[in-house]
Amino acid sequence: MTLYGVGLGPGEADLVTVRGKQVLEEADVVYSPGRLSRSVALAHVDESKIGDLDFPMTKDEEKLRAAWKEAAAEIAPNAREGNVAFVTLGDPNVYSTFGHLRRTIDAFHPDVELEIVPGVSAVTAFATAMGVEIEAGAGLSLREAANGHSPTGPDRMICFKVTDAPATHEGLLEAGYDVTYGRRLFMEQGETLVTDDPEDIDERDYYTLAYAVKEDLEVEQATAAFEAEAESSERGASEDESTASEEPLADGGAVVTEEIAEGCTHGDCGGH
Ligand SMILES: C[S@@+](CC[C@H](N)C(=O)[O-])C[C@H]1O[C@@H](n2cnc3c(N)ncnc32)[C@H](O)[C@@H]1O
User: Quick one: where's region Disordered (predicted)?
Assistant: First the structure.
């Protein structure tokens, strides 16, 4: 049978994918590496299915290796006999504990079948939460900014693990970035916050990220011209209103639009 690595998404239970939910419902045991992932999983499975794993809060690599070996030794027999799931917040392949489990299983239990169900990652969820568009062709780098660190270089960055926002902010500002912070985005647990003021989030919270974009970055978008067009037609309309006659239009005022040929809207087709 199979060990499934299931991405739960950023934290709201209804952002688990349909496939992820199905795998959780069908699994015999569901393992979770932390309190938050456990609470999201519990929205979909009964507590009796949750398997216990013990992870020490340490950076000691020897102890971590021992803990992962122990976790793999607990999971592997269950994954041979039935279906088990190991859940992580976001996506299992993005900065995730699942990587450790996969490597340990590959090394010591290579006969275990493994499948991954992707999840909505904070890497993409932040854009919606912050109302940011990463336009086609733009570069976007992923960095870490723990303990006040300020990574610099790329035009646009997502910084994970912003645990000291005021200190990180200082460095990013100095390097010429505009920065927006997101805390507990799409999470049921805790207060969601989007702000450009680091003092709003000066208390440490691991579930905090930053979106930093070079302040002088210029982006040319073909459709950006629509904004100016819309503004000028709005202006025109209000001028027309003030000069409009009371006479009805001869054709009843109907607006005739042309249908766009299906399959060639230059939307999802990528503009050919
Ligand atoms: C180890 S990474 C895990 C990423 C996860 N696997 C994913 O794909 O989203 C943890 C970091 O991701 C960011 N993060 C994850 N979920 C978040 C959320 N809902 N809101 C804000 N930041 C989040 C935080 O910066 C946190 O320190």
Answer: 225-259
Decide whether any atom of ligand 1 lies within 6 Å of the 209 Cβ: yes
Higher local confidence (pLDDT), 181 or 221: 181
Q: Which domain holds residue 133?
A: 123-214
In terms of DSSP bridges, do strands 141-144 and 156-160 run parallel, antiparallel, or are they unpaired? parallel
Domain count for the chain, please give it. Answer: 2
Pocket flag, ligand 1, residue 161 (CB < 6 Å): yes
Distance 266 CA to ligand 1 centre (A): 33
Could you identify the atom of ligand 1 that is nearest to the CA of residue 91? 8
Same domain, 150 and 207: yes
Residue 21's CB is within 10 A of a number of other CB atoms, namely: 18
Is the domain of 150 the same as that of 200? yes
Whether 140 contacts 127, CB under 8 Å? no
Global pTM value: 0.84
